Amino acid sequence: MSTRISDEYQNQLRYLINRYIFDTCYAPQCEELATLSNTSVEEVELGLKALADNHALVLHPNSVSIWVAHPFALFPTLFWVKTKDKQWWGNCAWCSFGIAQLTNEDTDIFTKLDGHIESLTIHVRDNKIVETDYVVHMPLPVNKLWDNVIYTCANILIFKTENDIDQWCKHHNKPKGVALSVEQLWSLSKLWYGNYLDPNFKRKSKQLAESIFTQVGLIGDFWKF
């Protein structure tokens, strides 16, 4: 394999990571990925670095260990996603809904309203959100999401009302982004993460990503790369 890591290999590696974390609930090591991909550890390390450079995952600083492979977080967060026999950390509301889309079974999402004190459980039953009277704050336009993606995800939270988002932004001196209904985020999560366990997984182009936003009614400059 040349120094330039092909898109095909990056997609294969990303699928294997998705599948591994979904099945085991933790991240694979380079040696395991080398075995699964029938390549060398060196090739896996180059592939992981390429994926990180292309904003397809996040590695720990000065390391090839996986920190984040959206929708999965490999560290404690405000979101805990649980099925009958599996459980994962989600990076944010969007990612947690994405994990729930992948389970194809009843799933519970545990979090804190507005990241503060009050606990909230979102139940997914028969592939539908039960608690629909909530909103989600998308804090930054999509062309800024990867400026600091850990920070971005930490701020994609669930609120009771849009007024609560306004008060939260005022209290924490943060600019307001856009409010989505949980049903809208659920639809977005299905289109965004629905193919992550497909062996033919391919990373999205900016054009495809923007078309997905449009399909769920998210239009305007905020949703353009």
UniProtKB/TrEMBL annotation:
Gene3D superfamilies xref list:
3.30.450.410
What's a single GO MF annotation on this record? alkylmercury lyase activity
Note the coiled coil stretches, chain numbering. Answer: none
Q: Which Pfam families match?
A: MerB (PF03243)
The protein's name is: Alkylmercury lyase
Organism listed in the record? Didymodactylos carnosus
